[in-house]
Amino acid sequence: MILSDVTIKELVSKGRLIIDPLSDDTVRENGVDLRLGRMFCRLKRVWKVLDIREGGLPDEYYECGEYDSFIVYPHEHILLHTREFVGLPEDVAGLVNLRSTFARLGLFIPATVVDAGFQGELTIEVVGGEYPVRLYPGERFIHLVLVKLDRPAGKPYDGKYQGQRGVRLPKIFRAGQS
């Protein structure tokens, strides 16, 4: 069952659902719009093989920083994060969709699920369309549809990305190296 705006507001007021900061204009009929944060990571075009068992140095594969605006070039893959910190209860999961305005510009995000019990800012991959598009922090960019589970998860999310802030790169990179 998809949660309505009324149910979302009830969960927030009871402290069961965290969306911080939360604005009145972001709670929608059947979900919550989330805004772009300031950090973006551009996936570099390199020919060095990244062995997922060996890891590597993130700087060899990503260019990251905080920006006042950021251009997504055609067919490019970037990582971005939400301004909002999201905390889902054990009986609610989230489905992330690109807001239709940006989809109509040719941008694309792969299917993304936010697990019940997850807490943190969301890291989202964006794929560029046919022409460059400039993005700005603070823009309502994605829509989080909240779905009620048939019962609370027996093992809510407690994984390696719990509590993340900013763009979180894959955990296969060597710890402590950038």
Question: What can you see in these coordinates?
Answer:
It is a single chain. This protein is mainly β and 178 residues long. It has one domain: Deoxyuridine triphosphatase (dUTPase) (Deoxyuridine 5'-Triphosphate Nucleotidohydrolase, Chain A), CATH 2.70.40.10. Strands 1, 2, 3, 4, 6, 7, 8, 9 and 11 form a 9-stranded antiparallel β-sheet that branches. Strands 5-10 form a two-stranded antiparallel ribbon. A hairpin with a 2-residue loop joins strand 2 and strand 3. The longest helix has 9 residues. The chain is globular and about 50 Å long. The model has no long low-confidence stretch (mean pLDDT 94).
CATH-level-4 superfamily name:
Deoxyuridine triphosphatase (dUTPase)
Oligomer: single chain
Q: What is the end-to-end distance?
A: 42 Å
Low-confidence regions: none
Q: What is the overall shape? A: globular
Task: Name a few traits of the molecule.
178 residues; 7% helix; 9-stranded antiparallel β-sheet; two-stranded antiparallel sheet; Deoxyuridine 5'-Triphosphate Nucleotidohydrolase, Chain A; mainly beta
Concise overview:
With 178 residues, the chain is mostly beta strands. It is 7% helix and 38% strand.
Describe how the helices and strands are arranged:
Layout (H helix, E strand, L loop, with lengths): L4 H9 L4 E3 L6 E2 L2 E13 L18 E5 L3 E3 L4 E11 L4 E7 L1 H4 L8 E3 L4 E9 L5 E3 L4 E9 L30
Antiparallel strand pairs: 1-6, 2-3, 3-4, 3-6, 3-11, 5-10, 6-9, 7-8, 7-11
